[in-house]
């Protein structure tokens, strides 16, 4: 039941109450148009396949216990990881606060040191030491060179007079 229209290469096919149009001169065979709402027939499964699928769909108690233990282990691990991360964050914040306090104290100490140094007049101290306290410069025989020792101080055990 193919009809040919004049002046075009369009063909009209009617099959089982459905109409399909094909264009072009190469279309020679009738192609059936399927309704997308039709459900294709299922193949019948073999007994082995059906039994394997049933086994796979059921979980035995051992498998459930294993999964529960794995889940509990994962939860405990994640909780301890989060706890450690929190501890690290707290330590970093404490270190940052201590560094800030250290820098403030160091700055205050440097300012105080500079203030003290700027207020000292070494010439005045020398004049007071020589004039009022009777101090004098050391003579040649009074200077003793001491060998470098590992400790920071020297202890005199006998008189050098």
Question: What this model shows, in words?
Answer:
The protein has helices spanning 47-57, 61-119, 122-131; strands spanning 3-4, 10-15, 18-23. The protein is mainly α. Strand 1 (3-4) and strand 2 form a beta hairpin. The radius of gyration is 51 Å and the shape is elongated. It starts with a strand and ends in a 30-residue tail after the last helix.
What are the main properties of this structure?
50% helix; single chain; 3-stranded antiparallel β-sheet; elongated; mainly alpha; 161 residues
What structural class should be given to the helix and strand makeup?
A: mainly alpha
Helix content: 40-55%
The geometry reads as: elongated
Largest sheet: 3 strands, antiparallel
What is the number of helices? 3
Indicate the proportion of strand residues: 5-15%
Summarize the topology.
Blueprint: E1 3-4, E2 10-15, E3 18-23, H1 47-57, H2 61-119, H3 122-131
Antiparallel strand pairs: 1-2, 2-3
Summarize, please.
By secondary structure, the chain is mainly alpha-helical.
């Amino acid at each position: 039941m193919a009809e040919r229209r004049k002046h075009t290469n369009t063909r009209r096919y009617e099959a089982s109450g459905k109409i399909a149009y094909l264009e072009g001169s190469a279309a020679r065979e009738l192609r059936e148009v399927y309704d997308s709402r039709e459900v294709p027939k299922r193949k019948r499964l073999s007994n082995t396949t059906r039994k394997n699928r049933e086994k796979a769909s059921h979980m035995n108690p051992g498998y459930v216990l294993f999964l529960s233990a794995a889940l509990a282990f994962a939860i405990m691990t994640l909780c301890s990881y989060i706890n450690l991360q929190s501890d690290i964050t707290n330590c970093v914040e404490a270190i940052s606060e201590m560094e800030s306090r250290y820098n403030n104290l160091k700055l205050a100490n440097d300012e105080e040191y500079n203030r003290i140094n700027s207020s000292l007049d070494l010439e005045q101290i020398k004049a007071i030491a020589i004039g009022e306290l009777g101090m004098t410069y050391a003579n040649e025989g009074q200077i003793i060179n001491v060998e470098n020792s590992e400790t920071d101080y020297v202890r005199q055990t006998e008189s050098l007079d």
